[in-house]
Design a protein that fits this description.
heterodimer; A: about 280 residues; mainly beta; Immunoglobulin-like; 7-stranded mixed sheet; 2 helices; disordered N terminus; B: about 800 residues; Ferric Hydroxamate Uptake Protein, Chain A, domain 1; 51 strands
Chain lengths: ~280, ~800
């Protein structure tokens, strides 16, 4: 079953003691189509290096597919930092291919590509109709785990499990995106397969041990794959606004504009400096 | 160094101040009647004869003549008349009018007591005369409501509410069923100055906006000024809401209260020294937590929510010339949450207002009245979060110390000059975070800010002749944001600290805004029953509420004007026709207004407002415009009384950084807004109230497109896993369905003796069960592959009951 996370409806319990709801019809005028790019590279997992190109659709269009663009030319180039200059040599350019074009168009991968920590990257896209998109990112140096422990609490018939994780936030670690996948012993196939996401920076706690505690419980016996990633500031701003947009809803919702870091499209080109830990809760 | 604008307008403004003072004094001292040798002054207080409470806005006037005066907020009046014999009528709505005969040969002081209707009094002559203030005064857009009227209105859960009651008036729009915020002539909720016994109430709501902080048992009356603001008021762009607390009975001890569905009230009042001093203590508390606790499962027994209010007041008559008032308010909301699934995870959240007011009335002579007040108010919140490996605590507050002095100089029969000064010292503490997680300690403070706000004003209420009257004045205001303060410099692109900062020492000016606010209103009396009025008001606002939502929340912060955040400015032009009918028992008015607003503040879409050291970076600045027509008709007395109000209006905003710079409708733009209130006395025991309200639906922003993002491939299910993100285009281009509902209430006077009175109030809210829109959400139906829209509505038909008692 496809799990479409669409709208959370936060609010006060009291409101919902009294509130009711009914379906209504809304007429929204047709929108202007825009290109959407989701590009991810990292230094650790090949399955998390990909570029996805899709488009916006009218809000009430009866279509919940990805609406990918096939047939585009997609390149990622590793660069070199020389003082204040960043140089991208076309000799280092690697093409990403739309391997699943006939099944799921718009997903571009390169099984031989692997990012490197502390390196800049350039993304270049040219669609079949000639439209061009580009963006830059940087894979930061990953954090180093310091300690990890877990405990159990009985809740009725269930045994809940919680964990506490600590790492060192150094001068090179500033912006974090954490994804946790509670599943069998395998790696993510696209970030979206993870169960929980967190974005946070180090403005409150800087250059010291950084703690993280899970509040929503897991179950006894769960296997957690914890991906603690370092990302750049613009990428962080994108994913933080994305988190707000994805959880926006309810009576106090306000429109959230996702803050893209690429030119010519909505979306992000994110370089992840991943630190990975697997935790078996038993 | 002082940062000051150096524009020619600044110099011009101060030239205007000088000219205004000169013209005012010239007019007063050159007036023929001002210094007539054979004029004398009649002055004193008008009170409720049974309780000793002063009556605000009671009138005293010469029979068959236009000369008259009204009591001020302390119940004081002063009326200067030529020497002679007079028959004077003293009246107040809901009270028996009284006629007194007087030979005025010298300055005379007199205290008058009026008996409430229904109380037998031998000395009273019922005249049948009614006040004609609606037609004769220069005031526009000013409406008063008594505490008793507010208590008689139909309400949800049996809780009478001041802020819900005022939204039944034209030009004042409700923020919705779950909001005590109100919107006056196109302004935001933070553009209303809410005063309780002169103390500012920064957050007037309990229960996340469902109810206001004003306990109706402690409220004597409310007075809202939504336009034509005289120079003695300022500080906000849109309105001033004065909530005056009762003083307490200085004749007898009384106890009263009410038991409702969600809260109860208890009030005690009485003389400290009979006829000379009195006290009032009134408390209110919700008991949802207490009632629900026995029925909750053990795992969530620790969860609770409650609020309480405590109003205290004492007043002392120190002699013929001096009175002292001490009043205070303490209210708090407390939410305790214990996680049912995660032991040791607790969340405690509390917020509330505290105010204290010390007022001293002094009568220099029968023509010069002065009130001096020292006021303290504080709004604060705490947020404690504890869990197994540590905890956090967040504190924030806003605190004011205020000194003000207001003088009323009853110069002559034709001139009342008011002047005064007002100084406030603001302390803003946006946030202190402390705590620990594991072995890591956390301590962060958002830098405190300090500001001085100063105002002086001078105004003259001038009756030029039988037909013309004007009220003109000038308010000079200044706001000075001062150190100590350290501003962290942020990088605009990355929104991270650059490591640089700029500091100001204690008392050093960071941003200084001196401004002038001219005020003018005029009344042309067409005949005894009709008049035309016009007004011009210019107002500045130096404090701004940081909220990105339409609703007001406890965590919303007030922020001061700074180098980047310029003071908000509004100009309001109004013109009205006022007409009374049938010996003033009907009042009606038609007013048009035009109100441009500059330096309005909004937040960027998705702005982070919580614990943000760089909050200014999240703001955008623009302009607003509101204009409209307000119609109002009121029947003041009789077995059937009430009012009907209708407003046609348009309110827009324009921000360069929002909506592609195009003009858009303000969220609370409401083309049509109407309210009908009918009160009917069925017999001595039963009375009924009926309310109907209608308003065009709020403007709202809806997404026009969407896209799939955060791709993942679920190998087990062999399908992609996607998150859909909404994309918005035009701001507030969609209208929610219209809001309308009807409520009815019945009051039954169960028993009334000299020593005991009890009554029941039965209310039905939303009698025809209208589904009024609260918000819209969308749901992706994966079975049909469609997106559906759902409208959530809050209150269906809700009956409630409250029992009130007094002994």
């Amino acid at each position: 079953m496809t799990n479409y996370k669409y709208k959370a409806i936060p609010g006060l319990a009291l409101l919902f003691l009294f509130s009711c709801e009914k379906e209504i019809n809304i007429n929204v005028p047709p929108s202007k189509e825009e290109i959407v790019v989701e590009a991810s590279i990292n230094q650790m997992f090949a399955s998390l290096n990909y570029v996805i190109i899709s488009k916006t659709v009218d809000y009430f269009k009866p279509d919940l597919s990805m609406n990918g663009f096939g047939g585009a030319k997609v390149y990622i180039t590793e660069g070199v930092i020389n003082g204040s200059d960043t140089v991208f040599d076309s000799a280092n350019r690697q093409q990403f291919i739309d391997l699943l074009d006939s099944i799921l168009p718009g997903i571009y991968v390169n099984p031989f590509f692997m990012g490197k920590a502390a390196k800049p990257y350039l993304l270049e896209i040219e669609l079949k109709d000639g439209r061009k998109v580009n963006g830059k990112t940087f894979i930061p140096t990953p954090a180093v785990f310091d300690s990890l422990h877990f405990w159990f609490e009985q809740s009725g018939k269930d045994t809940n499990a919680f964990f506490y994780l600590q790492w060192m936030d150094g001068p090179e670690q500033n912006n974090y995106r954490m994804a946790i996948w509670n599943n069998i012993d395998s790696n993510l196939t696209g970030w979206g397969i993870a169960d929980r996401f967190y974005t946070f920076d180090d403005q409150l706690l800087n250059n010291q041990k950084r703690p993280f505690q899970s509040f929503n419980p897991y179950k006894y016996g769960d296997t957690l794959n914890i991906y603690l990633s370092q990302i750049g500031r613009k990428e962080f701003i994108f994913w933080d606004s994305f988190r707000n947009a994805a959880n926006n809803g309810g009576p106090f919702a306000t429109p959230v504009a996702v803050k893209s870091n690429i030119n010519g499209a909505i979306g992000s080109f994110t370089g992840y400096g991943i630190a990975f830990k697997q935790l078996i809760l038993r | 160094m002082i940062y000051m604008p150096k524009s020619p307008e600044f110099i011009k403004e101060y030239r205007l101040l000088f000219y205004t003072i000169f013209v005012l004094f010239y007019l007063i001292f050159s007036s023929n009647t001002s210094w007539a040798q054979n004029s004398f002054t009649l002055s004193g207080y008008i009170k409720d004869s049974t309780t000793g409470e002063t009556l605000i806005g009671a009138t005293i006037r010469v029979k068959d003549a236009a000369n008259g005066a009204a009591t001020n907020v302390y119940g004081f009046f002063s009326l200067t008349l030529p020497q002679g014999n007079y028959e004077l009528i003293c009246s107040y709505l809901g009270y028996q009018s009284k006629t007194i005969k007087l030979v005025l040969t010298k300055n005379t002081s007199i205290n008058l007591g009026l008996a409430p209707q229904g109380i037998k009094s031998k000395e009273v002559v019922i005249t049948g005369e009614r006040e004609d203030k609606n037609v004769r005064s220069t005031e526009m857009g000013r409406i008063e409501l008594s505490g008793e009227k507010i208590k008689s209105l139909p309400v949800i859960f049996g809780e009478p509410d001041v802020l819900k009651a005022i939204t039944l008036l034209p030009g004042i729009k409700s923020g919705g069923e779950a909001s005590t915020g109100f919107y006056v002539r196109g302004g935001g909720p933070d553009q209303n100055l809410i005063l309780m016994d002169e103390a500012v109430v920064y957050n007037p709501s309990h229960l996340f906006g469902f109810l206001s902080v004003f306990n109706s048992d402690a409220v004597k009356n409310i007075d809202i000024i939504k336009g034509g603001m005289p120079a003695n008021y300022g500080g906000r762009l849109s309105s001033i809401l004065n909530v005056n607390m009762r003083e307490g009975n200085n004749q007898n001890f009384n106890y009263g209260g009410g038991i409702g569905l969600i809260s109860s009230r208890l009030t005690a009042e009485g003389p400290l020294q009979k006829g000379k001093s009195s006290f009032l203590i009134s408390g209110r508390r919700t008991y949802i937590d207490v009632l629900a606790k026995p029925f909750l499962p053990d795992r969530i027994k620790g969860n609770s929510y409650y609020f309480y209010d405590l109003n205290l007041k004492a007043n002392f008559i120190l002699g013929d010339k001096d009175r002292l008032f001490v009043s205070g308010y303490f209210g708090r909301d407390i939410l305790d949450f214990q996680s049912p699934i995660n032991k040791g995870v607790n969340f405690n959240f509390g917020w509330g207002n505290s105010t204290a007011t010390l007022r001293w009335n002094h009568l220099f002579n029968s023509r010069l009245f002065c009130n001096t007040s020292v006021i303290f108010n504080r709004y604060d919140l705490f947020n404690d979060f504890t869990f197994g490996s540590g905890g956090f605590s967040v504190r924030s507050s806003l605190e004011d110390w205020n000194l003000k002095s207001d003088f009323s100089w009853f110069v002559s029969e034709n001139h009342v000059v008011k002047f005064g000064l007002n100084y406030t010292f603001h302390t803003f503490q946006p946030g202190i975070l402390s705590g620990s997680v594991g072995s890591t300690n956390i301590a962060q403070t958002i830098t405190k800010q300090y500001a001085h706000e100063f105002a002086v004003y001078l105004m003259d209420e001038w009756k030029i002749n039988r037909r013309w009257a004007v009220n003109y004045g000038l308010r000079a205001v200044a706001f000075n944001l001062v150190g100590p303060y350290t501003q962290l410099i942020y990088d605009n692109d990355t929104q991270t600290p650059t490591g640089n900062s700029k500091s100001w020492s204690t008392g050093e000016s960071i941003a200084f805004y001196p401004r002038l606010e001219p005020r003018f209103s005029a009344n042309y009396l067409i005949n005894a029953e009709s008049s035309i009025k016009a007004s011009y008001t210019q107002t500045y606002q130096f404090l701004h509420l940081a909220t990105s939502s339409g609703a007001q929340f406890p965590i919303d912060l007030w922020v001061p004007s700074s180098r980047l955040i310029k003071p908000q400015l509004a100009f309001q032009y109004a013109l009205g026709y006022f007409r009374n009918f049938k010996q003033n028992s009907y009042e009606s008015s038609a007013e048009i207004y035009y109100k441009p607003m500059l330096n309005q503040i909004e937040f960027k879409p998705g702005a982070n407002l919580f614990f943000n050291q760089n909050l200014e970076n999240e703001m955008v600045f623009g302009n607003g415009l509101s204009y409209g027509l307000e119609l109002f008709i009121k029947k003041k007395s009789g077995r059937l009384n009430g009012w009907f109000g209708y407003t046609w209006s348009k309110t827009t905003r324009q921000f360069d950084e929002l909506n592609d710079g195009k003009v858009y409708f303000y969220r609370y733009d409401r083309t049509h807004d109407m309210s009908l209130l009918l009160s009917y006395t069925i017999n001595k025991k039963w009375s009924a109230n009926f309310v109907f309200v209608y308003g065009t639906g709020n403007a709202t922003t809806l997404p026009d497109s969407r896209y799939a993002y955060r791709f993942g491939y679920d190998a087990k299910e062999q399908e992609p896993k996607l998150t859909f993100i909404d994309k918005y285009s035009a701001v507030n281009s969609f209208r929610l369905p219209a809001y309308h509902r009807a409520d009815i209430s019945f009051s039954y006077l169960h028993k009334k003796t000299e020593k005991w009175e009890s009554s029941w109030n039965f209310s039905i809210y939303n009698i025809y069960n209208r589904a009024n829109p609260y918000f819209i959400y969308f749901f992706a139906d994966t079975e049909t592959m469609t997106v559906k829209a759902f409208m959530v509505y809050l209150f269906p038909i809700v009956p409630s009951v409250m029992w009130n008692f007094k002994f």
